[in-house]
Amino acid sequence: MTLSTQKNLTFECETGNYHTFCPISCVSWLYQKIEDSFFLVIGTKTCGYFLQNAMGVMIFAEPRYAMAELEEGDISAQLNDYEELKRLCLQIKKDRNPSVIFWIGTCTTEIIKMDLEGIAPKLEADINISIIVARANGLDYAFTQGEDTVLAAMAQRCPETSCQKDRSDTIIPQSNKHFPLIVFGSLPDSVVQQLTMELKKQNITVSGWLPSTRYTELPAINKDYYVVGINPFLSRTATTLMRRRKTKLIGAPFPIGPDGTRAWVEKICSVFNIVPNGLEKREQEIWASLEEYLKLIRGKSVFFMGDNLLEISLARFLIRCGMTVYEIGIPYMDKRYQGAELALLSQTCLDMDVKIPKIVEKPDNYNQLDRIRDLQPDLVITGMAHANPLEARGINTKWSVEFTFAPIHGFTNARDILELVTRPLRRNNNLKEVSSEIYSSNY
Amino acid sequence: MKLAYWMYAGPAHIGTLRIASSFKNVHAIMHAPLGDDYFNVMRSMLERDRNFTPVTASIVDRHVLARGSQEKVVNNITRKDKEEKPDLVVLTPTCTSSILQEDLQNFVNRASLESRADIILADVNHYRVNELEASDRTLEQIITFYINKAIKNKTLQTQKSVIPSVNIIGVLSLGFHNQHDLVDIKRLFSDLGIKINHIIPENASVHDLKELPKAWFNFVPYRETGLMAAKFLKDKLDMPFIDITPMGIINIKSCVRAIQETISKFGSENNYEEYLNRQTKYISQAAWFSRSIDCQNLTGKTAIVFGDSTHAAAMTQILSEEMGINVLWSGTYCTYDKEWFQEKVSQYCSEVIITDDHNRIGDLIAKTEPNAIFGTQMERHIGKRLNIPCGVISSPVHIQNFPLGYKPFLGYEGTNQIADLIYNSFTLGMEDHLLELFGGHDTTDILTNTLTSQTNISWSPEASRELNKIPGFVRGKVKRNTEKFALQYNNNLVTLEIMYEAKEKVNT
After folding, report:
1. What are chain A's domains?
2. Among A104, A423, B137, B186, which one is most buried in terms of CB atoms within 10 A?
3. Nearest CA-CA distance, residue B374 and chain A, Å
């Protein structure tokens, strides 16, 4: 176990024996977000089985995704990868006619070193359809990081505005008083609109989102554009935008919770030299409207086992709500990309006068269950593998996966986060008569 | 490469894990990348298991790729040995780890030296067998291991029990209605005066395995899992086995007669005929049901059947022989069990289909247009799209296939459940048809679905589009509440801003 301390935050690193979703799960929300896409996961039956079961009913809705299931001949290189992929992609083109096919590389394509990045450009020219390669595999990444690999690959496909004659005109259109801003991260369209409007209120125009609703409408990204992330797991995308597209990253806390949203907007304003207007009042109003939920959780404790990288932002928000956080488990911690969020976490702990929770990277679920037994937190935010067994032991749980699918961003959706967090507590109030005594902590 | 959207049977390691986690105090360690432990989610969610699933992963990551697992697997095994004190650890390769070609057997040997637990390596080829075949193989492997161990230690209990007894082999976790079936099988054997020696692997201890030879015979309720183990016990210890699934009245009869014959060879003379008649007449309502007027209407109705070989074969026979329904075709995705299936069902249907391609099944259903479908969750959805009712009779499983109530498919209570399932599928279909014929239910359309429709409130195009994105079942409520909110502030035009504001302030 390695320990390091930075700005009073404690980081630990455990064994990495924890449960999370495979990063190929990003297919399930990205194919819905990018309407003219098709996702081809190149892997084995194991990958297919996971997607089939994890996506539940969506699988029956003719999803725009499929497995390219590798057979023994592919593994032993008796079959030609190029020819095989060509055959499959032509069929997809014929059946669905997408604007882009995403190839999702998996553990198996990594191990057999299938040269997807090499094959894609050739095949792209051959069959005249865009092919983007993202290696979202379980050897390197966890759950939501899958989206990060896809967006990083997409960032390189965003067009550049060609008209370079009058730079000041292209880069700073007349209507804008600031440099163009691109927001990155996949969100449901309604949340995109809400956040866009939030910025508009401060006279900030969003020039484009990565990803957009259609692949054919990817935003133009030029040198010196500003970019800002909306999710904590997008570090590769941020790096790509900075290094490959020469943009400037606005390092801000993430717009999760009213406190996070305000800090996010304020940070963007400060970069553009805009004095934020009415934000404080807006935040206060949101907090006031949340009072019925806050009453339920104030003074309660929470334990994040860690599986989706939203943990720091959620913990920060819940501390502001008056909860105590015992532990923040997280699969991977990018201290640079999440710098502003970590600073806000420290500040929040200071403001609320609570101890800064320790952050446990690559946690060990077995050890965590030990600690949970000792600490008896009021709420454990965890994956579905542990939820029912913990409930049977009298520990309240909330499935972490729901936070990745529910709209949780911006002022408007703060209520949805608390709706999720308080659900087990509200349920307990309803079930007092039946089950509060039966399920207790006798491990 | 194969373009695949859906698969009927899972990958091999799932089969191994289902066996390992069905035993008591057996722990499986998967040699797998992060995220491959989805099995734990299925156990925990579908079976609503109250205990932690005894499966952990020894994670294969970049470092393992570069340097090999080295001490990692051994350490994970010995650690688990100390933490959980299992009787047996099953090291389970996955499709990813099997192409790494690490010498996992060597890890097993090394870990054996340091562990109290027995350790074995699941011996399945991930690119050649599926979940069902792997479960059959793993169960055989574990039983073989402990029988051989008992022979070596001279602890094998070969003395037969005084009264007739049986081992039930192949009841396991995440099996289609297995828990309910087990209750009815127990009842059947109790009625027949046969003692149950052991049930394997469900909740059994590996220490029980040395007592298996005490039973007079073995019983394999499902073809998919347990046959290999039963054959091993036959070859090694000369134990007879019965593999007739007691699903449907006719099958129960042949199953019980086979039992009678088997135990008579050991000198226990029983005549179960009277019992069979009594059960058929009074306990099972299915036989009476198929004579009743209701069931006459089913005569000549068409159906198709698809599922695993056990359930699809039995269902085909029930529909055809016990209900008088015309089975247009019957099929299974257990392609490896083709000969048996073909022989079993060809007399009851016009065509036998062997495939694991759901598209082919979908097309066939569309082409043949049966009155009802009996299949898996996939056929249920095909049925939804084609407006054909479907009864689910086989895995792949879904949360709905773990009902809280008692719903066996086997035994006499099973016949009642199946009769209900069949009848309900057809009645609903008929009702639907009649409704269509007579133009639907006689209800007056509710003309206004919003209470504020009198006021002249309008929606901006953007807000309107946004409203349409809201799922249908809550759209009305959101619309109403947003309009109320807008009117409260004297707005006659709902814009996006107002919509979001309403969500924030009144939680529309």
Report:
1. 23-141 (3.40.50.1980), 181-272 (3.40.50.1980), 279-437 (3.40.50.1980)
2. A104
3. 17
